[in-house]
Amino acid sequence: MLFLIFYLGEQRYALAAQEVVEVVPVVQLKKIPQAPSFIAGLCNYRGAPVPIIDLCRIIEKRSANRHMSTRVIMVHYQLKDGTDRLLGLVAERATEMVTLESKDFVESGVSGEDITCCRRVAIDPDGMIHRVELNGLLPENVRDVIFR
Questions:
Q1: What tens digit of pLDDT does each residue of 4-62 get?
Q2: Distance between CA atoms of 148 and 134, rounded to whole angstroms?
Q3: Which sign, positive or negative, has the C-alpha torsion 84, 86, 91, 96?
Q4: Where on the phi/psi map is residue 134: left (φ > 0), alpha (ψ -120 to 50), or beta?
Q5: CA atoms within 13 A on the CB side of 91
Q6: Domains identified in the chain, total number
Q7: Structural domain of 94
Q8: What is the domain-level CATH number for residue 20?
Q9: Which helix (H) or strand (E) holds 143?
């Protein structure tokens, strides 16, 4: 199975390639008044507004650094009713693809109410890779606000 690898700080994360629509450069975002801090804004993606989430803000409680390799990962985000919506994810150093098997990712042994999107890890010669599970990324109340 193919995965897009990106970094948040020095930590590596993996997102299944089948969930990725496109990886695009970070563009000027339209701020949304009174939005939670992890909503970076909206972008015009092929003529449609798409909400953009700052993964660093959700996972590391800081804003993403703007490097040449910082990208917006456009993903298929599945809602509870089964429909797909586009969602953009700001990630640092999103430049690498790797092949791993789903079974390579195992439970980290750490769980909790706040740890919902990155519970499984894989280990390779370069260390651990957290697997991002899109369905655990956004709290339900935030999904309702973004995709109403």
A1: 999 888 889 999 999 999 999 888 889 888 888 888 999 999 999 999 998 888 777 77
A2: 18
A3: positive
A4: alpha
A5: 26
A6: 1
A7: 2-146
A8: 2.40.50.180
A9: helix 140-146
Whether the CB-CB separation of 42 and 34 falls below 8 Å is answered with no
Round to whole Å and give the CA distance between 97 and 29. Answer: 26
Residue 87 · residue 72 · CB < 8 Å: no
pLDDT tens digits for range 84-98: 899 999 998 888 999
Residue 68's Cβ-count burial label (10 Å; 0-12, 13-18, 19+) is exposed
pTM: 0.86
Q: In terms of Cα–Cα distance, which of 58, 41, 30 is closest to 138?
A: 58
- pLDDT tens digits, 110-125: 654 555 677 888 988 8
Cβ-Cβ contacts under 8 Å for 80 (sequence gap 6 or more): 143
**Backbone phi and psi for residue 9, each to the nearest 5 degrees, phi listed first:** 65, -125
Phi, psi of 57 (to 5 degrees): -65, -40
Compute CA distances 109 → 94, 101, 103, 120, whole Å: 26, 19, 16, 8
Q: What is the pLDDT of residue 9?
A: 83
